[in-house]
Structures are given as structure tokens and as C-alpha cells.
Amino acid sequence: MDERWTALIAAGGTGGHISPALAIGAHLQRVEPQVAIRYVCGARPVEQEIYRKAGIEPHVIEVRQLGRGPLAFVRSILALRRSIAAARAWVRAERPQVAVGTGGYVCVPAMMAAAGERVPTLLHEANAVAGRANRWLARRVTAVACAYPEAAAAFPAAKTRVTGNPVRPEFIGCQRRDALAKWGLREERLTLLVFGGSQGARRLNQIVQEALPILEDAAGRLGGVQVLWSCGEQNYAALREPLDGRPAGRVDVRLVPFIREMGLAYAAADLAVGRAGAMTLAELTANAVPALLVPFPGAVGGHQHRNARPLAAAGAALVLEEAALDGARLAGEVGRLLADRARLAAMREAAQRIGRPRAVEDLVEMIRALRRERA
Fold first, then answer.
1. CA-based max dimension of the chain
2. Domains in the chain, start-ordered, CATH in brackets?
3. What is the pLDDT of residue 67?
4. What pTM was estimated for this model as a whole?
């Protein structure tokens, strides 16, 4: 089957949904050069911007989440029907052979439209707790892939497979020397990577800000520590000003609004501090980076806590509760781990053991199998 064909990939909401879509699309294009990939997202500017930063212009479908209260619920159902009708017209025009959904409310009209046009459909659930939209779609799609075994229980067993989360190839296997050169970091210093996801994390940033002066003593005993800190574009200006006035010390900080070259960031890191989003954890384990995880307490269904459990159980990460965390506690944990080289090495080995570096290959093979079955 070497003729041109089309695959639809739907993802919206956040980078946690869109990143696996981009990883799947990139690998599918690599093994199937003749495929034309059509990405679809919701109308929020932040969704479209993530695609555009990757050099992709997505198709936009207006969609809204289900409202609360009887009147809001009825309005959202009517809006969903309009979204499905618009998506179905687009699917008819594009004529995809396979449709893939990786999360976000846009998957509902996109996958419903594809199923209605008898296009084979694959749904991917990235989190340990299955999302509401994915649970609702499960009976209507052809196949389901899950990152976590516990999420698989929410889907029909006969069509569900555990694959892990796909990581973009450029996020794996980068060289430390290239990473150090990128941000002007020093080879002899230990590197702490801090990041809160594609939009940053305000409370986590505040705790890190409190921790930096407290970390000075531990950093002195370690010969200095350098911090590569991705704070989110909306938080950058407020954090930059106090750092500019901070005297040079044993903790050297590189504050950036956003890191596009995350593969390089992982290559530089001796230890990471971040949230417990599904794609963050997939990338950390694929790169064998030890981590201090601070799950976002507002995550739906507590899914970030459940995402983090396998890493903690394996010894690849420590989980810190945000409600009980302050700068002194974080500085203490960072200092203890950076001083214990043997424990860092054990955490790296544990992360490597539980990572699923073949997730993207397995997902693309599922897509190719669906296409073959259709043919």
C-alpha cells in the first residue's frame, strides 16, 4: 500500500494532549512518507499556538465542554451537535483512512464524525485516570491505547492495549555537551531542571523562588549548583526582576519563559522538579532523569497523583504534596538528593526500567493495522 493516504489526528486543550499527537504524527510520517496528516484542534488560541510553534497549521473546530446545570447542559449538547456536523463535513472532504484522538474536548466531534463516516478510529488515553471525553467515546471507537494499566479498566478490554505515552524523537538521546552550550551551563556543576508544563505553574514557581536562597549552603558544599528554570511566559516578567537584583552566588539560575528543546534540557539535568503530567513523566523516564514531582492538586480526578505513583513505587521519583511544600522543604530535598550520587544513579536506573521508549512505535503500528483492516 504505497499510494497517498490521509490520517486525521485530533488533540486540543493543553500540551499534554497535543504533544502525543505531534509525536505520533512525526513517527507516522517517518515510516509512511506517503501519508498526509491533518491535525484538528479546538478554537482556543493557546491550542493553535502549540501547533504553530511546531510548524503546523491545524484545522479548527468550535467545541465546548459540557455545561453545569440543566440550561447550560442543553446548550452545550446543541453546540456539540453543531460541532459534530461541521467535523463530519470536514471528514467527508478530507477522506481519511484512519482517525486518531489523543485528548481534549475536540476529540468528541472529530472522533464521532470519523466513526459516523466509517473511518477506523484509535483513541489514546495518556493519564492513569481516564478522562470524561475518552470514557464517553470508548464504545464508539475501533481501538483504545492506554499509557497506564489502571486506566485500561475504564475501556472495553477486547479493544484496549497498554502502550505507554509516545515521546517525540527529538526529546530523547540528546547530548549533554550540546545542552550545556545551549544555555551557557558549566560542565563541573550539577544541574537542576525546573519546569511546570507548557504554561508554567504559578505556585510551584513561588516555592522554587523561596528555595533558591536556602539552597545556597548545600550548593556550596557541592561546588555550586546551576538551575535551568522554565517558568511559563505569563510568569517570566514577575520572576525575572528579583533574579536580576540577586547577587551572584553558589546557585546560578538560567530563567527562561519556555523551553522548546526539551530533549536538550533533559540531557543537561541531574535532577528535575516538576508537575506529574502524563507527558512530563513519559519524557523523564525516556531520558532516565530522577525527579521530585509536585502533582497539581487541581488535576481532574487526582490524575497527576496517580500518574506519579508508578515512578515513586519504582524508586525513580519522590512525590511532594504541594499543600505541605515550601521553599525550605524543597531546598532540603534538592540538596539531599544532589549530594547523594549513588541514590541519583539508582533513580536513573529505575526511570530507565519503567520507561516505554517504544510507545510511539507501538501506536503507529496500531494505526497501520487499522488502515490495513479497512483496506
1. 66
2. 5-167+357-374 (3.40.50.2000), 170-354 (3.40.50.2000)
3. 58
4. 0.87
Question: Across the strands, what pairs with 194?
Answer: 229, 273
Q: Which residues of 246-276 are buried (b: 16+ CB within 10 A; e: fewer)?
A: eeeebbbbbbbeebeebbbbbbbbbbbbbbb
Q: Which 3 state secondary structure label does DSSP give 319?
A: strand
Whether 331 and 211 have beta carbons less than 8 Å apart is answered as yes
Q: Quick check: helix, strand or coil at residue 226?
A: strand
Structural contact between residues 290 and 316, judged by C-beta atoms closer than 8 angstroms? yes
**Residue holding cell 513561588?**
206
**Which tens digits make up the pLDDT trace of 174-230?**
999 999 999 999 999 999 999 986 666 889 999 999 999 999 999 999 999 999 999
φ/ψ (deg, to 5) at 156: -60, 125
C-alpha cell at 59: 484545522
In a 13 Å sphere around the CA of 38, the CA atoms on its Cβ side amount to 20
The whole-number pLDDT of residue 75 equals 76
C-alpha count within 13 angstroms, C-beta hemisphere, residue 225: 29
- The CB-based long-range contact list for 209-214 (8 Å cut-off, 24+ gap) reads 209/239, 209/242, 209/327, 210/326, 210/327, 210/328, 210/330, 211/327, 211/328, 211/330, 211/331, 211/334, 212/246, 212/251, 212/253, 212/327, 212/331, 213/251, 214/327, 214/328, 214/331, 214/332
Helices (H), the chain: 15-31, 45-53, 70-94, 107-116, 132-137, 149-152, 176-183, 202-214, 216-221, 236-244, 262-268, 278-286, 303-314, 327-339, 341-354, 359-374
> Hey, what's the cell of 296?
497539581
What residues form DSSP beta bridges with 228?
Answer: 193, 254
What is the mean predicted confidence (pLDDT) over 327-346?
98
With a cut of 70, say whether residue 321 has pLDDT above it: yes
Cell of 374: 479497512
Reduce the DSSP state of residue 249 to 3 states and report it.
Answer: coil
